[in-house]
Amino acid sequence: MCGIVGYVGPRPSQGILLAGLARLEYRGYDSAGVAVIDETGSLGMRKKAGKLSALRDSLADAALPDGNTGIGHTRWATHGGPTDGNAHPHLADDDRLALIHNGIIENFAPLRDELAAAGVAFRSETDTEVAAALLEREYRSNGGDLQLAFRSVVNRLEGAFTLLAMHEDHPGLVVGARRNSPLVIGLGEGENFLGSDVAAFVEHTRKALAIGQDQIVSITPDAVTVTDFFGTPVQAEPFDVSWDAAAAEKGGWSSFMAKEVAEQPEAVANTIRGRIQGDQVVIPELDGLDDLFTGINRVIITACGTASYAALVGKYAIEQWARVPVDVELAHEFRYRDPVIGADTLVVSISQSGETMDTLMAVKYARERGARTLSVCNTQGATIPRESDAVVYTHAGPEVAVASTKAFSAQITALLLLGLHMGRVRGSVADASVDVAELAALPEKIAKVLETENDHVSQLAGWMADTRSVLFLGRHVGYPIALEGALKLKEISYIHAEGFAAGELKHGPIALIEPGQPVFVLVPSPRHSALVHSKVVSNIQEIRARGARVIVVAEEGDAAVLPFADEVIHIPLAGPMFEPLLAVVPLQIFAMALATAKGLDVDQPRNLAKSVTVE
Ligand code: F6R
């Protein structure tokens, strides 16, 4: 939520800030703004409600003087609606100081009262303006030391925040801080950058520094200093960004989502690469950490949204291969009860962004309770892996579309790898050769689904553009895919959709079936379990008898479903744990094509933001 970028260097900053914001726009797109200290040393600011294009239009209509120091923000509203006035930056000190913020300042109300009592007149409804006003007060009272004033401010704030600030008196200096919210440094030649993530500056530099929790950073063109909230210097952790700017470009595709759906074979191949040795799965990052898997008697996988559906597939795989009980917990529910966890529990978190606040808090909570923690994450330098004992990175590359697709496939792949790795370490998988062969074959099979079903499924979606509700049914590992199919449809096409475990239908939801109701049914292979397959075929007959329009996703050659299906989407033959990676692809294409048929923006659906850094 909210994208933040900062620049100091020899170049005019506006273009750099706007390009950075364009790459960060997936984080929030209800308003955007920039502030720049111009050549004459004055601070100018422009902000606009709406997408970044509204800010660009405004700057094209009336230019803002450019300069070498600047900050920019793209917002996902929390306090105060998406208006020009509530957009960031917020100004103080006679408009000579500018500040931007991501997160929520939980104690903003008493601070606002305190400042209002001292005569501050606020111009917005945001919590952020309180931080700007506080910074002005501290700055004035300490005689103009921006870094010292900034330190005093962050120590008074509670909640989650990334803040960047600059002052007209200090051209060439941007200060930043983070608590439970992301901020990374980009190191250039004679210029430096700050960003919510590396996308903000990857076109200029791939050298980055990760900033830890409760740390403050100051950047000038030639220097970067990082301290804790009390001014003690700390060493920031360097890393090289593993992808280049082109990876985060649309590159001729109609949308980022279309590009990312198509990139799934590569994302899965990259996640597997280097993790197969002979006919075993060996994840090198987990070398020397066998104790994480042998010293436990329980696994909890925690995540939100799409990542939690990947977690459900992971539950089946880890239980099957590592023979240890696995529970899946929504991260935002996990720490608000009193879960029974301790040193014998491994808490696995899954997060594409590595910044989801609900998931981060669950990881911290698990650590405080003595559990071991491992994260599955797609973003280098992100907070969740830094807070975990171990990390298995998915290598899906940057995911820009708000609706997660390739990251989901990479998460499932990483969990399959983890299950086989754990099984080997725990001695419960003696021979992984068949599963290793299945893993290696996945990219090609996903490519085949894309090739053979894209037009068919898109056509189907075109016919269904007026549909008001779609149901999705699955059993076993098909159940999480039913949930994911429904979520994809809801979030980008705004059509009501529900995913159910197929066996659950008769316990209530079957009442929803009326003539013409479209229902996708994910049919497991009869080769894996004739029993489960026959149960799903029975479920199809039950809904068909009540007039449902049945769209079946089944493996090639499954003749048993043909008499009962209005439409059949074929997927290649795969092992039981591997089918989800094939079955999800047509559902992603369906959601995307339906949203497109309705004329919607599939990359930036309403009300959403990609990285949810508030609880
Ligand atoms: C849906 C979607 C979200 C995320 C969820 C967790 O398409 O993208 O449901 O999966 O917000 O995000 P991460 O994986 O970044 O923790």
Structural overview:
- The model has no long low-confidence stretch (mean pLDDT 95).
- The protein folds into 3 domains: 3-247, Aminohydrolase, N-terminal nucleophile (Ntn) domain (Glutamine Phosphoribosylpyrophosphate, subunit 1, domain 1, 4-Layer Sandwich); 250-431, Glucose-6-phosphate isomerase like protein, domain 1 (Rossmann fold, 3-Layer(aba) Sandwich), CATH 3.40.50; 450-603, Rossmann fold (3-Layer(aba) Sandwich).
- The relative contact order is 0.09.
- The chain is of the alpha/beta class and 615 residues long.
- The protein is built from 17 helices and 26 strands.
- The strands form 5 sheets. The protein has an 8-stranded antiparallel sheet, with helices on one face. The chain has a 6-stranded antiparallel sheet with strand order 5-6-7-8-12-13.
- Helices cover 35% and strands 23% of the residues.
- The structure holds fructose -6-phosphate.
- The site of fructose -6-phosphate has 15 residues, from helix 9 and helix 15.
What brief labels describe this structure?
615 residues, Glutamine Phosphoribosylpyrophosphate, subunit 1, domain 1, Rossmann fold, 3 domains, eight-stranded antiparallel beta sheet
Mean pLDDT: 95
Question: What percent strand?
Answer: 15-25%
CATH evolutionary superfamily of the largest domain: Aminohydrolase, N-terminal nucleophile (Ntn) domain
Structural class of the secondary structure composition?
A: alpha/beta
By CATH, the topology of the largest domain is Glutamine Phosphoribosylpyrophosphate, subunit 1, domain 1
Cross-sheet strand order for the largest sheet: 3-2-4-1-10-9-11-14
Give the uncertain stretches in residue-range form: none
Count of helices? Answer: 17
CATH architecture label of the largest domain = 4-Layer Sandwich
- The radius of gyration over CA amounts to 25 Å
Q: Which CATH class of the largest domain applies here?
A: Alpha Beta
Distinct ligands, ions and cofactors found in the model: fructose -6-phosphate
Distance between the first and last residues' Cα:
11 Å
Q: What is the number of domains?
A: 3
